[in-house]
């Protein structure tokens, strides 16, 4: 069984920074993709970023490119999302997820929530103006 636990959310002023962590346990994560998604109240779940566990290939949503950085520490089984220059529109519950497939299918397929089968509970990020 795969378990994903997020931490690091909180309240921050616009322009500030937060670093989210996603600690994974259970089955092997080699060759899988780890993604960060977010969901604001009344909105659909939105892709933020993903990274391949083994090769470190990254991909970002246009809305966060240049401000957010995804990384992973394989020794700690942890994926991070460093968020800088936060904006009020970044306010959402942020969740990490592990892909269903052990093969990297490309940036676009790996940005779809349907490509992921294990999800964490999420952590709230609130950015005040």
Walkthrough of the structure:
By secondary structure, the protein is mostly beta strands. The protein has strands spanning 3-7, 10-13, 18-25, 33-39, 46-52, 58-60, 68-73, 78-83, 92-99, 116-119, 123-128. Strands 2, 4, 5, 6, 9, 10 and 11 form a seven-stranded mixed β-sheet that branches. It has a four-stranded antiparallel β-sheet with strand order 1-3-8-7, with no helix packed on it. It is globular and about 40 Å long. The termini are far apart. The model has no long low-confidence stretch (mean pLDDT 94).
Q: SSE layout and pairings?
A:
Layout: E1 3-7, E2 10-13, E3 18-25, E4 33-39, E5 46-52, E6 58-60, E7 68-73, E8 78-83, E9 92-99, E10 116-119, E11 123-128
Parallel strand pairs: 2-11
Antiparallel strand pairs: 1-3, 3-8, 4-5, 4-9, 5-6, 7-8, 9-10, 9-11
Computed over alpha carbons, the radius of gyration is: 14 Å
Unreliable runs: none
H/I helix tally: 0
Helical percentage: under 10%
Identify the overall geometry.
globular
Summarize the structure.
The chain has 129 residues and is mainly β. It contains no helices and 11 strands. The strands form 2 sheets. Strands 2, 4, 5, 6, 9, 10 and 11 form a 7-stranded mixed β-sheet that branches. Strands 1-3-8-7 form a 4-stranded antiparallel β-sheet, with no helix packed on it.
Q: What key attributes describe this structure?
A:
mainly beta, seven-stranded mixed beta sheet, four-stranded antiparallel beta sheet, globular
């Amino acid at each position: 069984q795969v378990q994903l636990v997020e931490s690091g959310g909180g309240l921050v002023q616009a322009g500030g920074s937060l670093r989210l962590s996603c600690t994974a346990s259970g089955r092997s994560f080699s060759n899988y993709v780890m993604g960060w998604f977010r969901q604001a109240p009344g909105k659909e779940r939105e892709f933020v970023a993903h990274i391949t566990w083994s090769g470190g290939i990254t991909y970002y949503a246009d809305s966060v490119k240049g401000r957010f950085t995804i990384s992973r520490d394989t020794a700690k089984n942890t994926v991070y999302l460093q968020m800088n220059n936060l904006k009020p529109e970044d306010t959402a519950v942020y969740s990490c997820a592990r892909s269903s497939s052990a093969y990297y299918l490309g940036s676009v397929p790996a940005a779809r929530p349907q490509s992921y089968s294990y999800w964490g509970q999420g952590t709230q990020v609130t950015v005040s103006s």
